[in-house]
Amino acid sequence: MHAYRSHTCADLNKSNAGETVRLSGWVHRVRDHGGVLFIDLRDHYGMTQIIADSDSPAFAAIEKLKAETVVRVDGRVKARDAALVNPKIPTGEIEVYVTEVEVLGPAEELPLPVFGDQDYPEETRLTYRFLDLRREGLHRNMMLRSRVVKSIRDRMWSRGFTEFQTPIITASSPEGARDFLVPSRLHPGKFYALPQAPQQFKQLIMVAGFDRYFQIAPCFRDEDPRADRSPTDFYQLDVEMSFVTQADVFAAVQPVIQGVFEEFGGDRRVNPDWPLISYADSALWYGTDKPDLRNPIRMRVVSDHFRGSDFAIFAKLLEQEGTEVRAIPAPGGGSRKFADRMNAFAQGQGLPGMGYIFWRKAEDGTTEAAGPIAKALGAKTEALRAELGLGEGDAVFFVAGKPETFEAVAGRARMEIGRELGLIEEGTFRFAWIVDFPMYEKTDDGKIDFSHNPFSMPQGGLEALNGDPLKVKAYQYDLACNGYELVSGGIRNHTPEIMLKAFELAGYGRDEVEKRFGGMVKAFKYGAPPHGGCAAGIDRIVMLLADTANIREVIMFPMNQRAEDLMMGAPSEPTNEQMRDLKLRVIPKE
After folding, report:
1. Rounded distance between C-alpha atoms, residue 93 and residue 79, angstroms
2. 24: burial class by Cβ within 10 Å (0-12, 13-18, 19+)?
3. Which of 212, 202, 215, 209 is nearest to 159 (CA)?
4. pTM listed for this prediction
5. What DSSP assignment string belongs to 262-287?
6. Choosing a second label site near 180 at 20 to 30 A (CA), which of 263, 338, 374, 491?
7. 20 C-beta neighbours (distance < 10 Å), count
8. Residue pair 567/129 in contact by the 8 Å Cβ criterion
């Protein structure tokens, strides 16, 4: 017999009754039923119930076992009585009567239990991640992640893509986040960077004559943490294709993503309709560029109803350039109590509040509009109601000002209204391509900078770059799903003169571009094909499939919210010898 096991803890069933077997695993829990001991023995594959009575030669040893001790047990398989069968596990028809037990790895008192679903502080869970990973839910998430990655890889190969690996140590590149820099020992005073994405390399692969590339790529960004984003590193499905339009990229990627969600989404439905929504429309309708289309509410600009009206607050505001009034319909929200609650929500999000109108049945049986705005608008209220398609029992909320000051909060209010009124379509994944992103944006200090990926082709080419930069749209696109950005990409700028002009508008002179992106500029001078691609976040895909809002629940060894590895003690202080080798010195904190 094998030194440790003849079967796994998921193998045995009634057909094995009478066999002598050997199992190894962790003591999940011990139950004492008055002279009869039961052990749930767990390994990677499953659970088997072990039993020992006072006649068993192993009884005394089992009595001393602590939870999470690693043991080897020998015993005889017995079929359970019909009334004692556990249908929830594959081995529920049997139990193993133990004759011998050997402790392979003793366990001390646990800082957090593996058995059960108790909530523990995340700091404790991350410090003892190796224990946390033994818990059923987290173990299941990691196995889901592994299967998702394999499925993606198989689907990409089946669609004619070839997998290549790109460097992990490279040069710094502006990708929209801060680089992690790596000092060079051989070149003192110079630094490598960990790649924010394989962006330049995958484009160079196209220039080199390869056609359909993909990679499950690690990416490194020194970012502020969020629940749906890792602050240090993440994995993405990286894709690039030659001789393609935007529509070709969508056609290649949609079957892969849709197939993965259909395969691993359980009983949740994947809506096959993936609309194309412009960035401007997405911001207007949903207040975000990653809309949750399970919520049917669309915001509308209703400024004309208030311009010159008796509702002086909005009428006066609309006299200022760049202002508007936007309506958030609330079907079924027609009560003052609900309106007050949503107004308080907006105030909690930093807005002065939201105006509202709601419609109710009047004493004479007709439908009447209620609220201060309705009184001020008078007859215009009916035209507003008709435009929004609302009626008795419905409401509408209003936000006003310059869109950049209220849009994000309006988007959150839209989702809160949808949740409160039960409008969210549950059990569904709804996707949308967000297209026509602006190429540039104005920074807080008034400068022009790239709003998205700097390597994207401007719509209209070189001619478009000779006008107002803030009006230039790029061949850039994102894929949103249920309120999360899953994919981001673009058709690339493969012409040197357009690339140099695009960077010039963002404040990068020719010398700096050639210094920082010399490889790309040089390569484009020797025949670059039109090409484009995208990247899909593996962590976020698995997070949605695992039905969790915390990305750390689907990463094997994540950092905490302060970008610290509590288990391994990173970041740590370097030794003096390491610093001397690198010719570096740390400036003390003030």
Report:
1. 6
2. buried
3. 212
4. 0.92
5. HHHSTT-EE-----EEEHHHHHHHHS
6. 491
7. 13
8. yes
